[in-house]
Write the structure tokens for this entry.
Amino acid sequence: MGSCQSQQCSHGAGPQEEKSKEDIQLDEQLKRIKHKLLVMSGKGGVGKSSVASYLAVGLSKLGYRVGLLDVDLHGPSIPGMLGLRGMFRVDPDENLLIPHKYNDFLQVVSIQCLLEDSDAAVIWRGPVKHGVIKQFIAEAKWGDLDFLLIDSPPGTGDEPLSVAQMMPDAKAVIVTTPQEVSLADVRKSINFCRKVNMPILGLVENMNGLICPHCNKEVPLFGKGGGGKMAEKMGVHLLGSLPFDPRVVESADIGKSLLEQTDDSPFLKALGKLIAEVVSRSGIQQGGTVQKEAGAADTLSDPQSFKVAIPMAGGALTNHFGHCEQFLIVDVQKGVIGNKETITPPPHEPGLLPRWLGELNVNLIIAGGMGSRAIELFNQQNIKVVTGAPCLPPEELIQQYLANTLKTGANACDH
Ligand SMILES: Nc1ncnc2c1ncn2[C@@H]1O[C@H](COP(=O)(O)OP(=O)(O)OP(=O)(O)O)[C@@H](O)[C@H]1O
């Protein structure tokens, strides 16, 4: 007899279950975190925890408020790497766990800080892990954060799945080394993200060459550039490459991040570039103002500055948008054509291209033809679509678009 209002009606799906106190707390906490980055890898030992901790420390040193959550429940290594010791305290008034403070801008939560014996083995099944991860987010006193970095165990098991379910707006940072065995596992991580609809912020290639401390020449320890090739092949963005630096191992062993010293070593230089790329891909302008979510431009706020994707065949635009072999992605700033990149799209799957081009921060498509459903999906990603463009070389199309002289005909949809 109760009215729709009194039953919290949910669009014909039957009465919605009341949210638990913990779920409400989780929602509240997640609202206070601007960017959630899940650091994952297909394979163990590729440097995922190191990358997560260096990103966290680096971002905190730029003045961003950062949380680092170690959900590698079976092999937590973050506290050791950052020299954090001791058990957590609980705030008695709010009954919230107080994260360890690395510096004024970086707080850390890890299962390690709940174990009396640091060598204790944690044996938990999936639902228990899910509950613990939820508690670590909802019942810890994180406050407002610009970034929450989550270090998950290698592979695509319970922990990354729990994060994907709990945080629908989290993005993945996938870490790999350049050799083929590691890259094969990266493909699994990429496919996992696509299955659970988690956007991929990009790939980090770690241990990409050793700088010899004696002659300063580079030795290709695990091969070279494999991550870059993989990123291109799988249509994900390469965020950066870090060289192998033996001091990373030593500093992790003594719990002192290399970022606590300044030098112009190749590792720290590459790390600086990587952090800048993470900031820029997260849509943050320097100075900390949130500009836009990665891949979520509202409209073209400046019609002379955009990132455009053009479906290509034989050096010119092709009408076969959904099945084109390659896209040319071009950066245009203030009417000037900049960086151009030819990328092979992932294998065709309904709804995949809008998400993929959104991840690449594209906000304009110039196409010959496209179905109305596809246009709708691109618009949902805030990507503007121009259809009916002629099969011309891409530079000509962009110049005409900039000059407002691009003549478009009928939407030559190839379906
Ligand atoms: N760029 C680097 N240069 C030198 N050593 C590195 C580099 N990155 C990571 N390492 C070292 O490699 C080892 C493995 O790194 P790390 O623990 O970060 O990997 P992981 O992928 O998180 O491992 P796990 O599978 O245990 O979760 C550590 O000893 C770390 O210090």
Remarks:
- Residues 21-281 form a domain with the Rossmann fold fold (CATH 3.40.50.300).
- Confidence is low (pLDDT under 50) at residues 1-15, 285-298.
- The pocket of adenosine-5'-triphosphate is lined by residues 41, 44-50, 72, 75, 77, 153-154, 206-207, 242, 244-245, 248-249, 252 (CB under 6 Å).
